[in-house]
Amino acid sequence: MEGYGSAIYWLETAPEVPNPPLTADIKADVCVVGGGFTGLWTSYELKSADPAMKLVLIEGDEIAHGASGRNGGFAMTLLDMSLHHFVKNVGADAAKAAHKAVAESVEAIGRVCDEREIDCDYTHGGLLVVATNPAQQVRIEKDLEAAEELGLRDFKALTGDEAQGLVHSPTYQAGMLEEHCAVLNPAKLARGLKRVLAEMAVEIYEGSPATGLEEVSQGVKVSTPLGSVTADQTVLATNAWASRLPALSRKIVPLYTYIILTEPLSDEQMDSIGWAGRHGIEDKRNYVHYYRLTADNRILWGGSDGVIYRDLGIKPRYDRNDAIFAKLEKTFKTTFPQLSEVGFSHRWGGPVAMTVRFIPVFGTLDGDRVHYGCGYNGHGVAPSHTGGRILSDLVLERDRGYGDLCFVNSKELAFPKNPVSWIGAELTRKALLKQDRAMDSGKDAGDMDPPLLRLMSKLG
Ligand SMILES: Cc1cc2nc3c(=O)[nH]c(=O)nc-3n(C[C@H](O)[C@H](O)[C@H](O)COP(=O)(O)OP(=O)(O)OC[C@H]3O[C@@H](n4cnc5c(N)ncnc54)[C@H](O)[C@@H]3O)c2cc1C
Fold it and tell me: Which residue out of 238, 243, 304, 315 has the highest number of ligand 1 atoms within 8 Å of its CB and is therefore the one to mutate?
């Protein structure tokens, strides 16, 4: 697997010696492919249910190499582009069930961290959603109406003054507080889970990319460069890298999102922005800005434009994008003019998996032995915990209701083959960015269903 540079702040805070690669042909009950949150939580759920199970996890690079070691660390309920778009997309009952399952995951992650002594700076401050223009305000109102319709009690409307009272940015025109959100250090969580899984006797091999997958008489054989695992059942948890697996390649498209991180703020700088609640914050653009404080009082500032590279590839050089870093610095300074002198110490990016319908996809491939879960559209920190529950239930043929969630074994829409796939995804991305700009200049009402997106869903 390719390397990814050293700019990722989270990985610096959670140094770890990778386990040796797989160098033999071994057997297992279950083989999990991919050492991000989906693979880690699936392994955790499986071993918790059946401690005697022989479970092997193979990771192509090292644990937390992918999005799970690079993200903003928001464990939140968001699925799809917004709550009201989700309701429109899947219907009220399905949206409510999925929202509740992921909200429970936000809490469950905190509980596991407490019980298993994983110190990942889990801070349950809720999510502050802010509108920086009237169209975004309408989106907040629609989310609040959707929450009301679903009978969800965990959303609260805020006026512009109230939002600015919580966090001192002159750009806030309205807001909404959602209770179920925690911010955490994702690399510490992933590597803490690695330690816990080792204690549960999960065999973890790093530097062991799956290079082949074939059904054999004893199950499924997963090949790696120096060995293989033959297992009764296999779970594919490679998210954006699913684009490289023939069986999953058309379910998702890799989209890059980027982050910049400030130097630690001084006490005076902290006073100038308020933010005592240490909420995660997002605005209501299509391509959101997401931002939060770290444990050492830096501001992590991410989002703005996502990028889909023409080859739909995942490459180390895509981890940096100077044009996006410059845009991020600009919007940071507009949001917090009082911090215009603050310097930035880290800049990085990573691939997320985008699906046609903007919701994840989980299921079982023909043959019943290979299960998959991917496509969180950049919101997988808490949903991947729900994903671990879904995937473990698929493996164990257990019914806890997770198999009924709307993104499990559902009617999935496939991306066409490249280059049509890139062209379609790129046209969608551009339409969404154009709408973001039009909303800023008051020329678009912010309806979250631009015609091109509707067309893509139909074509998909
Ligand atoms: C910059 C950024 C910011 C984000 N911010 C947030 C946020 O604040 N909140 C939120 O909810 N979500 C966020 N996300 C999305 C979130 O990180 C992901 O949805 C989530 O981590 C997905 O977890 P995963 O385990 O499915 O995938 P990944 O973490 O990507 O893990 C996949 C793993 O599979 C491995 N792999 C790939 N191919 C193979 C192979 N052939 N064999 C073996 N292993 C293989 C990879 O090395 C990788 O470790 C962000 C993502 C990025 C990139």
Answer: 238
Q: Is residue 4 pLDDT above 50, yes or no?
A: no
**In a shared domain, residues 302 and 247:** no
pLDDT, tens digit (0-9, with 9 covering 90-100), for 381-419: 999 999 999 999 999 999 999 999 999 998 777 888 888
Q: Please check whether residue 221 lies inside any domain of the structure.
A: yes
Is the beta carbon of 269 within 6 A of some atom in ligand 1?
A: no
The counts of H helices and E strands in the chain are 12, 18
Q: What are 290-345's pLDDT values in tens digits?
A: 999 999 999 999 998 889 999 999 999 999 999 999 999 999 999 999 999 999 99
Residue 90 dihedral angles phi and psi, to the nearest 5°: -120, -10
CB of 104 closer than 8 Å to CB of 91: no
Residues in Cβ contact with 324 at an 8 Å cutoff, skipping those fewer than 6 apart: 258, 304, 305, 307, 349
256 close to 308: Cβ distance less than 8 angstroms? yes
Task: Give yes or no: residues 375 and 247 share one domain.
Answer: yes
Tell me the average pLDDT across 414-429: 85
Query: Do 85 and 59 meet the contact criterion of CB atoms below 8 Å apart?
Result: no
Instruction: Examine the domain organization and report whether 280 and 333 are in the same domain.
Output: yes
Six-digit token string for 286: 């299509």
Domain membership of residue 446 (yes or no) is yes
- Asked if 155 and 268 sit in the same domain, the reply is yes
The verdict on the CB of residue 379 being under 6 Å from ligand 1 is: yes
Helices 383-396 and 37-49 sit at what angle, rounded to 10 degrees? Answer: 50
| Residue 455 lies in domain | 420-459
Residues present in the chain in total: 460
Residues 39 and 131 in one domain: no
Ligand 1 atom with the shortest distance to the CA of 40: 25
Q: Is residue 456 pLDDT above 80, yes or no?
A: no
Query: Is residue 414 assigned to a domain?
Result: no
The DSSP call for residue 154 is: S
State which H helix or E strand residue 366 sits in. Answer: none
Residue 310 within any structural domain of the chain: yes
Check pocket membership of 319 for ligand 1, CB cut-off 6 A.
no
Q: Exposed (0-12), middle (13-18) or buried (19+): which is 397, by Cβ within 10 Å?
A: exposed
State in Å: Cα 42 to ligand 1 middle. 14
CATH code of the domain covering residue 342: 3.30.9.10
> pLDDT per residue over 117-147, tens digit each?
999 999 999 999 999 999 999 999 999 999 9
Q: How many domains does the chain have?
A: 3
pTM beyond 0.90: yes
